[in-house]
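Why does residue order matter? Because the sequence determines the fold. Keep that principle in mind as you read this record.
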Amino acid sequence: QLNLVESGGGLVQAGESLRLSCVASERTFSDYAMAWFHQAPGKEREFVAAINWSGHTRDYADSQKGRFTISRDNFKSTVYLQMNSLKPQDTAVYYCAGEASKSISLSRRQKDYNPWGQGTQVTVSS
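Structure:
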């Protein structure tokens, strides 16, 4: 099973950008679809974006579509989340997660993903 470690979070102003990274410990990374979820204070964890094992299929939540880009580098066992035009409502802990799947379809359901990283805090000030 993968061990996932996120990085790249921080404090930025509205309109700025951040790139999150999630590094996997195992070379079987390419056997996994990967996703990003976020959890704002007092709210449930929500789907942000997902990418299939090859990188050819991507899915985004409506509130992030057009501003966020998910990508992956299987040689580096890393998945990225480029976040542009950040808004205060993007403030949350961001988690990456993996689903052992070689399908072209992607899930938005948390229960389909295991393992999870420990999360990285993103704070956007107005």
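The longest strand covers residues 92-100.
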